[in-house]
Specification:
Layout (H helix, E strand, L loop, with lengths): L2 H12 L11 E8 L6 E8 L2 H10 L7 H7 L16 E6 L8 E2 L2
Antiparallel strand pairs: 1-2, 2-3, 3-4
Length: 107
C-alpha cells in the first residue's frame, strides 16, 4: 500500500473527508431596476443557488423577486458583456439602453 493510500485510509477511519470540491457557480442575466428607480439595468448574477442569487440581488439593491421571477425573466447564461470575466459569485450591471460598456460589480 502506498503512502497516499495509507493516508486516505487513516483519514477515512478518523472520519475526515477528502478536500471539499468547490461549489459550481450558476449564472443568470436579465433586466431589472434598482429599488426606487425607473431606470432599468442589465444585470448579471453569479451564485451557488437560486436562493443565493436572490440574496445577492437583494443586497445589491434590487426589489424583492422570487425564484419564479428569476426562472421566467432571467436567462441562465453569463451574457456577452461578461465575456472575459470568469463566472464568480456577485452581481454586475450595465445600462440596458445604449452601448453595454464594461459591467460594474455591485456585490
Amino acid at each position: 500500500m502506498s503512502f497516499d493510500d495509507e493516508l486516505k485510509d487513516i483519514r477515512k477511519r478518523a472520519g475526515i473527508s477528502e478536500s471539499p470540491k468547490p461549489k459550481k457557480v450558476k449564472v443568470w442575466n436579465g433586466t431589472e431596476a434598482l429599488r426606487g428607480s425607473r431606470e432599468y439595468l442589465s444585470v448579471y448574477v453569479g451564485a451557488h443557488s437560486v436562493k443565493h442569487a436572490l440574496e445577492l440581488l437583494d443586497q445589491a439593491g434590487f426589489s424583492y423577486m422570487g425564484p419564479t421571477h428569476l426562472k421566467n425573466y432571467f436567462s441562465p447564461t453569463w451574457g456577452r458583456p461578461m465575456d472575459g470575466i470568469e463566472p464568480q459569485v456577485g452581481v454586475w450591471v450595465t445600462p440596458s439602453s445604449g452601448p453595454a460598456g464594461t459591467p460594474k460589480k455591485l456585490v
